[in-house]
Amino acid sequence: FCPACRSLQPPGPRPDLFCLMACDRSFRVDVQQLRRRFRSLQRALHPDRFGQRTPTERLYSEQHSVLVNKAYQTLLHPLSRGLYLLELNGIQLAQETDSDADSEFLMEIMEINEKLAEPNNECHLEEIETLIKAKQEQLTKEVTTAFERDDLQEAKKVLAKMKYFANLEDKLRNKKTPS
């Protein structure tokens, strides 16, 4: 908001999502604090509050609201938060990370994919879901440690593995809720 006239200003071109959400630029975030900040910003910036304002302010409100939602979703989830931290440090995950992953890990992913592809495997879905959650928790601990040691290359490797498991989670979710 403009301090003089109190009108809403446009969001910056590339705002730091950590600053926007009043979080330290760290892999560890206080989820409760993040949630409170999200609600506070949404209350202040939600487009419904700007119905009687100028069209420009309504547009800025929509832009801010979208940005706050993006920031919240990015920082809430470990995978997207880690990828964002890498991005802030000028590091991108390769689109095809198969060459970076070890063969044992790739075999594990293939086996889980095969189990998911089996017809009539409802009895295995709970087992697969438990396995995926355990792996994601383990990988989250590993990436937390890597970021705390400021080992961005190790964090990149672990995040690539987390991405594989996120894809498996999506496949599992789609399998459990057929369209």
Automatic annotation (TrEMBL):
Q: Provide this UniProt record's keywords sorted from A to Z.
A: Chaperone, Cytoplasm, Mitochondrion
Annotated Pfam families? HSCB_C
Q: Which GO terms describe its biological process?
A: [2Fe-2S] cluster assembly; protein complex oligomerization
Transmembrane regions:
none
| Record localization | Cytoplasm; Mitochondrion
Gene3D superfamilies, from UniProt?
Answer: DnaJ domain, HscB, C-terminal domain
PROSITE patterns recorded for this chain? Answer: DNAJ_2
Give the InterPro entries listed for this entry. Answer: DnaJ_domain (IPR001623), HscB (IPR004640), HscB_C_sf (IPR036386), HscB_oligo_C (IPR009073), J_dom_sf (IPR036869)
Residues in J domain copies: 16-88
GO molecular function annotations of the record = ATPase activator activity; protein-folding chaperone binding
Q: Name one GO cellular component term.
A: mitochondrion
- Sorted alphabetically, which NCBIfam families does this protein's record hold? hscB
PANTHER family, from UniProt? IRON-SULFUR CLUSTER CO-CHAPERONE PROTEIN HSCB
**Into which family does the record put it?**
Belongs to the HscB family.
Q: What name has this protein been given in UniProt?
A: HSC20 protein
> What is the originating organism of this protein?
Eudromia elegans (Elegant crested-tinamou)
